[in-house]
Amino acid sequence: MTRIVMSTALPLPEASWPEQVWREPVRWSVAGIDEAFAVRTAAGELVGLEDALDQPSLTVYASARARVEATLGELVVNGLRHGGSLVQVSLARGPDGWLIVVTDSAADRPPRPVATVDETPDAASFETPSGGLGLPMVAGLATAAGWFAENDSKHVWALITDVPPPHLLPRSG
Amino acid sequence: MTPVPVADSDGQAGDVVVLAQADHTLVLLYGDIDLRCTDDLEQAGRYCIDAAQYAVLDVRKVALIDSVGLSFVIRLAAGLQAAGTELLLRGPNPGVSELVTLVGAEHLVRWEPQVAEQDAEAN
Fold this sequence. Notes:
heterodimer, A: two-stranded antiparallel sheet, 3 helices, 27% strand
């Protein structure tokens, strides 16, 4: 039998984003879930417009646009659910990818422990609490990700490089 | 290899449809399956578990799936497995497949043979 269990491991390291030359970011203030999804769509369109490498890929998530949309969406929703009713989002172009930063006001609350799919002898049911897979998704889609607190704010960031992490590339053979 | 089209999301909340079949439950997902669909997903999941039959989850029309949608797939698969039956995914949908693999849940779900393959077998 299988169930989803909560891991005690912190899903993202406490670290600042890589020091690179980032272009002036596009910024959004997000005050609710509907706005979160509108920003997710807008960010994807921005990446699609600017990313010369954005073209049909051999896998869906080899595309930087798909990874930015999914990652930004997860971070923004996490921020709204666990970090307060208003989050700031920025998306900046760097030399080889995109930096997403989501800032909320819960500086004292690091990103939550994550859910993992685990084998156990116990029966599972649909009543298992939902959620918990957002940060594992982020960790898998981003080339690097982390968080840090600064004054009264918490910044959670993800680096989405134009070249995807190897595990997102098609397997040969 | 054939290029995979990027999911064509229209930014609108998706839909969840549950259909009781003679020997299984069919759940159809459309569009963006994300946090906005939480209540519909919860109802669909409970219906499938209560029906105590195998379930087919048709994800062919899913444009985008987030962690809430992914959690639904995994919890439904685990719940049905615990009830002695199983979840079949009806594809193809490379985006869903890639994310299921990304979070390490590919062993939980089984993909139905695709229609083209079924036709080929029939001929």
